[in-house]
Automatic annotation (TrEMBL):
GO terms for molecular function: lipid binding. SUPFAM superfamilies: PH domain-like. The keyword Methyltransferase does not apply. This is Tectonin beta-propeller repeat-containing protein 1. It comes from Sphaeramia orbicularis. One of its GO terms (cellular component) is autophagosome membrane.
Amino acid sequence: MPVSLLWAVDVYGRVYSLSTAGQQWEQCRDAQMEIKRVTAVQQCCWGIACDNSIYLNVHASDLPVRYQEETYENQRWNPVDGFSDRLLPSDRWQWSDITGLQHQPLDSFQLPSSSWEWEGDWYVDENFEGEPTEKEGWTYAIDFPANYTKDKRWNSCVRRRRWLRYRRYKAMDTWAKIPSQQTTLPDPFSDISCGGWEISEEPRGRLSLWAVSLQGKVWFRDGIYHHNPEGSLWEEVPLPGEVVQISCGPGDLVWAVLWEGQLIVREGISRDCPKGTSWAVVESPSPDVGATHVAVGVSVVWAVTKDSKVWFRRGVNSHNPCGSGWISMVGEMIMINVGLNDQVWGISSEDRGVYFRQGVTSSELSGKTWKAISVPRDGDRSHSSKGSADGASCLVTSASPESFVDAPSDPSDPAPDPPKPRIPKVTSDSFISELVSDREPGKPSKEVAPPAVVEEESTAGEGGVRSSSAGGVLSPSQSGAPLEWSNVDLEEAQGQQVPAGAVQDSTDTCSLSSVATYTLAMEDPYGADEHPLWAWVSGGGCNVDSHYQLNWFNCSLNMSCDLSVTPAQTAAWRKQIFEQLSERTKREMDNFRHYEQSVWVKKGTMQWWRDWKPHKWIDVHFALEQFSGPEGNKDGILFIYYNFYEEKKYLHAFINEVTILVPVLNDSKHTFAIYTPERTKQRWPIRLAAATELEMHDWLALLSVSCCDSRGIHGPPSKQAIWSTTCKGDIFVSEPSPALEAMPYPTPSDQMFWRQVGGHLRVVECNSVGIVWGIGYDHIAWAYTGGYGGGFFQGLASSTDNIYTQTDVKSVYIYENQRWNPVTGYTNRGLPTDRYMWSDASGLHECTKTNTKPPSPQWTWVSDWVIDYSVSGGTDREGWQYAADFPASYHGHKTMKDFVRRRRWARKCKLTTTGPWQEIPPIPLSDVTILPCAAQSSMEVVPLWAISNKGDVLCRLGVTALTPAGSSWLHVGTDQPFKSISIGAARQVWAIARDGSAFYRGSNPGYCWYHIPSPSKQKLKQVSVGRTSVYTVDENGNLWYRQGVAPSYPQGSSWEHISNNVRKVSVGPLDQVWIIADKVQGSHSLSCGTVCHRLGVQPMEPKGQSWDYGIGGGWDHITVRGNSMEPPRIRLPSLTDPLPALQSPISVRNTEVNGNPVGC
């Protein structure tokens, strides 16, 4: 981890820096005056001094900050003088910029501030486009402006040359005042925040500096980048109210606090508009207490209210800068700052110490606990004593350390209660005067006012001082010697003579006393061992990795911690502890050996989407109770405890009834759903939201393992498994039972158990040999490696080998819409009834380039917005599609009746995860199919066909059970591009072309394609072939069955409509039919993307009879082409059979599951 700096300011206005590799605060001794606040980035630090001016401290580096000034000298040829500075009245200036529009003589260039210096004088640039010019550096052209050449020609009437001069920034590692702009000066500043370096990479080192004036106005510093660290000018930003504090993150997050206690969020910040466009108001975390401070990072927001409570904003990310809700955190702070990697620092309101938030990771942004940074400052005197080690070493790192006064000299005397220090909790211009005024004579303290204090009066010249009762001083009878105290002043304490006994007592005691009192004769205003009081901290340039061990948390402040423990004592302690633990274990275990089961409970707090209306998220307590019986079988129960009209109730579900655990796509919450058979029928799962992504993944992994244990499912999926993917890209697998296809009582689809497999895919296909292929959203092919787990599954829930890193890239699309009018032509001014001028495909939702975000926080942008020309219907040269009105059928050329047009913009985002998948380079694919085999197939090389993303048909060579990835591709020629393909059990290949027509061919490469007419007025989009059945889905969601398919006539005769609202179809090796259906109505809700099973499919009735609805919605793909288990044959008892032979359907089902079919 590279070394970086944490910056802080104490209450005396002195600036310190702490290195991530150091153990001491280093004071910046070059500051000309006291600094009130600082804001740091990696390359520099900005500060506000007590005169309300802005200062800049640029860190020194091997690469100097140099800026190139340039101007052009222009001349024209005339017959008398030749080339001279006598230009035509219409020509450009004699000395100008490159465009010729701005007058730039050499003497007009001035240094921006005293922090710059010239490296040399002006000189002529004698290079032109990388090649040396002739003498004096002139380049020639016919006229202004034109194309210049280094060679003079007969028609060269004008010429120019470039003059260069460099200036260097010299104020490195010093505080330099930012010069005021020449126009109207902004108000004096009271707060400042720097960030925005992740908005754009060009120009290099670009920063956004936001400032707040004393009148509540917000200003933006423009033009800050590497070659111009001071920036150019201040620009005022309009506001909805008066601002008191502002915070800017590394990216596009900018939050501010209003005077009334509300918060505002800057929206519209982008590469082209770093200032943003508008403000959005966010209410204070507490309705009764307003906010006083806010701090933002990459994807986090922290706030402090007037009562010093700390709050964390939930759901903040790049596409939701306002977040979703506040979470109260432990601790009381006066201010908080967020640095790199979203690490958090704060200053405690109790002791004014700097605290670091431990446990902050990308998956748990709120962290775990506050820990004090307890390192000394340079200049602190070394001090070590037994009393300090015993008294203060354990107090420094506590969350709320108490303050102590000097202990009595007599150990037998009882120690008085330590008074709490009076510390101002608001950092402002008057914080020093407040410290002074709190210790004025005659102003008693509210916390400590001992009546036994004796006030001694003397003159300052005699070395005495007036002691105040507010200082918490012990009486002479308690301390044994009169101690002398002084009020805090802005100046260093003058050396004064004090009794030796008083100095001895003060140095032998750990003093974390009040900030307004200190013993005399100290070089440091705090005292040698007194806790420093901080006013501000900034970690914007501090790069702390979540796994890096810092050296900031020693056990004491410059104190000895040696307890003098010998190795012999350590060994004796270990032996004693081991004997005690062994005796305790034996005692506790023996008393409970007669119990038949053990119970393990895990609890947590979540949010639950309640079942009754109005539906909303409510806070609940979530508990998982697991128990194991005497035979080792495991089971458990889920409990959700909630309040219903102040009455405590609970909802429960047995682990062995849970059928699936699904992460749900949500832009503001970390949500997952729990399904049971009853909940599947209702289409209303149990939806829960965790506070962090890590917490959600922990619960999902734990619940998944518990469900698998209760069902006895372990290890990788079987070869017969059914695979599916959700619209989110998650992969699920289910182990089919032999009775899944049994007649007349198959296993209901809603009772199937699905478990998640790591990875991210759009399409997955398999067969019964165990070969599984998948295709990502970026068209990259992946082969299954035989492992299990991956992703958020860790430990026993994941295999240790065959897990690889997997990436996926998908495109996000938005549409730019325009309407034609007779005056201006096509413009973005539509009718009041028109769709948004920037929208999604439906036109119902506004989607601009700025506010459109990746699908979820797991995705990150990897490209900029570009025009997409690969749109159905074609486009013109600029990407536009034309139509008569919105919405309509679009085409790629303009006609007389086209009054609207649109074009699609695309932007790519990327996701990185792990799973049992290995990449198959190099050809990107759009579809894949594998030959469905019998359960006991002896086939060595398995046919695998695919379609590239360009529409080419490919056949994979060398695919076997041992080498599922194959060896190479064989191209199969076609007359037009294809989009879907499927191979049947008899090796017949069916495909769908991009124009919606169907084709058939045998698997022999020598065969040719036969065109199959599509259903009337329908365009097909997907096909699936089984043993004898061929099913297709058209673009309108209709499912079609191909009639008349026989070995003698494999093309079939006609299409028969089976169902509508179908998204995908999968036909298995036994002609099983499964689909992904839309608009499935449950008893509680309507779902889209539901797994459905066709019932009644038999050799004599291949079309089946009805649908059995399974898991959903949100599913996008399913394949049953690996399930080749023959269903058990069941003979139903007839009415003439003897009575003992009668069996109920329930007993029949149980017999099927146990594997003993009836009547065989």
